[in-house]
Amino acid sequence: MASGILLIPGPIVISENVQKALGTPSVSHTSPEFVDLFASTLQKTRQLFQAGESAQPLIVAGSGTLGWDMAASNLIEPGAKVLVLSTGFFSDSFAECLQTYGAHVDKLTAPLGGVVPLSDIRKTLGGQKYEMIVITHVDTSTAVLSDVKSISEVVKNVSPDTLITVDGVCSIGCEEFAFDAWGIDYALSASQKAIGCPPGLSISVLSSRAIEVALNRKSQSSFFASFKKWIPIMQNYEQSKAAYFATPAVQLVNALNVSIGEILEQGLEARIAKHHATSDWFKNKLRTEKGLKLVSSNQRVSAHGLTAVYVKKPAEAISALKKKGIIIAGGIHKDIKGEYIRVGHMGESACNDSLCHIQLCYEALSELEL
Amino acid sequence: MASGILLIPGPIVISENVQKALGTPSVSHTSPEFVDLFASTLQKTRQLFQAGESAQPLIVAGSGTLGWDMAASNLIEPGAKVLVLSTGFFSDSFAECLQTYGAHVDKLTAPLGGVVPLSDIRKTLGGQKYEMIVITHVDTSTAVLSDVKSISEVVKNVSPDTLITVDGVCSIGCEEFAFDAWGIDYALSASQKAIGCPPGLSISVLSSRAIEVALNRKSQSSFFASFKKWIPIMQNYEQSKAAYFATPAVQLVNALNVSIGEILEQGLEARIAKHHATSDWFKNKLRTEKGLKLVSSNQRVSAHGLTAVYVKKPAEAISALKKKGIIIAGGIHKDIKGEYIRVGHMGESACNDSLCHIQLCYEALSELEL
């Protein structure tokens, strides 16, 4: 398969070394070689999420969505009250997943393109006990960035017992994120966005408090998504012992090891700064030179891994770019579906200047009547 | 990663073309190219399972285990009675998964190395209404092969309303299996065994009766494993329309398309016959020339994708073969864990004579004191 310049908000362009690591022979999932590789990948995942030794990373064959099931079926019991901050399609789908496992969900819905005001969160948490709060760090449908750090501070102040779950599918690797320092309990991501790996892996991290909740849970609501099953497996691998619950996707783990390695080699801070610079450049050009309006209502709430921007004829823009070998995405937010486009700028495309991906995309866009 | 000759019962050695198809750039999961590829892979999956147009294949990022959750959370309601025929570790784990989702499981446990007599199944089904029966076609822990065709006939005779679920993780691609002709309702497999693809995909097929049950279900017990979510996605892709529920593992699907293509090119019947020939040769050599005893109690119940054989010192045998670059597996059945080894002979290793994998394995084994 060949793809041209893939600038959708995931899957993204992978580096040559990640591609090489993917296209390797199968190895035994219990071999010392794979045990070491998996242990190293788990350790790197900790660093990527800025989590310490008391936190537990999980890498499981699946997709970002599987992380929702993990949160919903392990961290709360049926009937538990959960507060979901909705900034778009993905927050709403996460809420649906929580309800599937019996959660009683209250939703604070942000105005389109914006975030839920901290004062609303404070008030709601103060008025009622919630067992979990769910924050979508970046909602890929709107490119809205939530201020996870400040929200966590509010939660810690008003309702410290409330578990904090973060959907970091479109943020880990391209937005500032500090699992331990911000006191997050569960953060989930996927391999195919800013982590720079092909799709097929659910990647997440549990706090010691979340581990305790999951392990002391009386009833189980899921099997493949069960923390009780996966935590000992990951702990064993990290202690250089093979363990089996379900067969890991060995080549994808190999690719993930390389992709997180590349991020850490560049330096997490530098990597994130580079995503910010690329995003700012692109968004500024679109706003100032093309006079376009972003879906995210201001810079403070604008994600750095993708841009959602209103254009007159989204389908025509996507098709015109495709003719030039540049693949971008359409809108998926129900209220404005046919009114905007989405351009991903994560991983290689955001960080490897020699590729000129975002410049090329901007040039191609600027030739169009937008 | 390099692996030597990988002869565990999955992951298995993949062909050069499968490896090439894996190590490709990411593509958009909604691009026409990927839509066509996915549609073609779903069609090939039908052929592989010998299922017709009324059956629905599902290909989802995950592992074989995810198929258990799919059966347990979509085809039965909590409290439903399920009959599990246990031929080893994997049947027992499937039973645990069913119980997790609220099933009331009755188990008919075969004697170690054997299968449950048809008369017992007939009697049990006659005495009580079961909503589902679960058959592990090949239990990878014992290498015991169940006679799915005859069991299905019994079910159709005695209790035609009972849904028939088959765990075909270690059988699809190397054992005779006829989804439609045998009247199976749900058959699940995984990418990394006789299908010849790397691990990371749950591959399964639903009958029209199972689709009806899943779609008319009132409550939902799972989200990522939900048939209600996945069926329309797969139907859309097969009708050349992109659809989104969770991001597919695009490179793995590309690899799967090639690996099933290779099976169908060889001819499904010829492919299965070749697995039988390789297995018979290996098992006969071990029995007659080395005087060893198989875990499976007779030829009729012996799987053709792997061999489980008692040896005096399993750990030493595994280690001696590893020194020669041949990777085999140890036992995992709780009652005989330290008493046997398992050798996988699926896919390339069973079908590509020029590799001589199984001969080399036999030669290496025959030099040992077993």
In brief, what are we looking at here?
2 copies of one chain form a homodimer. Helix content of chain A is about 40%, strand content about 15%.
Explain what you see.
The structure is a homodimer of 370-residue chains. The first copy, chain A, has 2 domains: 5-11 and 267-366, Alpha-Beta Complex (Aspartate Aminotransferase, domain 1), CATH 3.90.1150.10; 16-264, 3-Layer(aba) Sandwich (Aspartate Aminotransferase, domain 2). Chain A has 13 helices and 14 strands. With 370 residues, chain A is an alpha/beta fold. The model of chain A has no long low-confidence stretch (mean pLDDT 97). The two termini of chain A are 31 Å apart. Chain A has helices at 16-22, 32-49, 64-74, 89-100, 118-127, 148-158, 208-216, 227-238, 250-266, 268-289, 314-323, 348-351, 357-366; strands spanning 5-6, 56-61, 81-86, 104-109, 132-136, 138-139, 144-145, 163-167, 186-190, 201-206, 306-310, 326-327, 329-330, 340-344. Chain A has a 7-stranded mixed sheet with strand order 2-10-9-8-5-3-4, with helices on both faces. The first copy, chain A, has a 3-stranded antiparallel sheet with strand order 11-14-13. The first copy, chain A, has a two-stranded parallel ribbon with strand order 1-12. In chain A, a hairpin with a 4-residue loop joins β6 (138-139) and β7 (144-145). Chains A and B meet through α1, α2, α3, α4 and α9 of A and α1, α2, α3, α4 and α9 of B.
